[in-house]
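Quick one: structure tokens for this chain, please?
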Amino acid sequence: MSDLFFTLVRPVEIVIAAALARMHDLAAALGLGVGAAWLTALVALVVLVRASLLPLVARQVRLAHASARSRPALEAIRRRYAGRTDPQATRELLAQTRAARAEHGAGFGCLPALATGTVLFGLFRLLSDVAAGVAVGALDAAAVGSARSADVAGVGIATVLTRLGAGPTAWGATGWIVAGIALSAAAVNYASTRWLTLPNLPRPSTSTPEPAGRTGSGPGPTPPRAAATAPATAPGKAPAKAPGAVDPAVLGARIQRLLPAAAAIGLLLSAPFVPAGVLVYWCVSGLWTAAQQTIVNRWWPTPGSAAHTAYLRRHPSRG
């Protein structure tokens, strides 16, 4: 399965390799040194790739807005069929869910996310291959050799922390620069996720499902199986939660709060084993993500999110 995925990504990697070669030629034509030319080409390549993905980002923003607008209707449908597992109820639930999503234009957004991930993974693969000395497309053996031998302040594209020594005391200045790049990438990733991405996510729903057999229009017949097994509850009240049960909304909020730290820790744990060129990519791409998310939060926040609440405070007439 992984071989098939790498085969599908290979054409993307070749296109990006051609762009990197062209960027390097332009940087060299400006009279930059070998190391500075490759660093400039790398940063410019990341910016070019992220800029080319902006139409997909806009598509994802529109899908997120449509999904947020459809959320109240979808939650009402789920409450209406809560506790019902008979085939008829399942068919009605699916049909009404599809109709509600179609009414608001809410798709699942898999294609834009998949395309974005494929391009970014192709960029990651290219940098990893260049650091390993593998020729890719327009980056022939001579170009790859030039990229691997070039350095800025002693740090090259292929520099890996674990190959500099057994520990921080053996790294020298080069190792500490690479470690600084890794820490910067992790900090940018954490800050972007914690203070920009999460505030633009819709708040977890705290609504309580209606008892089985109730609909949005009033009380209805309770299915015989549910009536025989469900505990008695007062009219109009939801069934009591089982002892120790965790509210899904609370659980979702907890998971969201852990995401920034988990992503930053994962990046730091992998940093000693990846080339410096990939760390530079992570850092520059993280800065682009932060700037992009800042713009989205300020002018196109997702309805129902904290960012949207702040937007409405700034523009009360658009509420």
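Confidence is low (pLDDT under 50) at residues 207-239.
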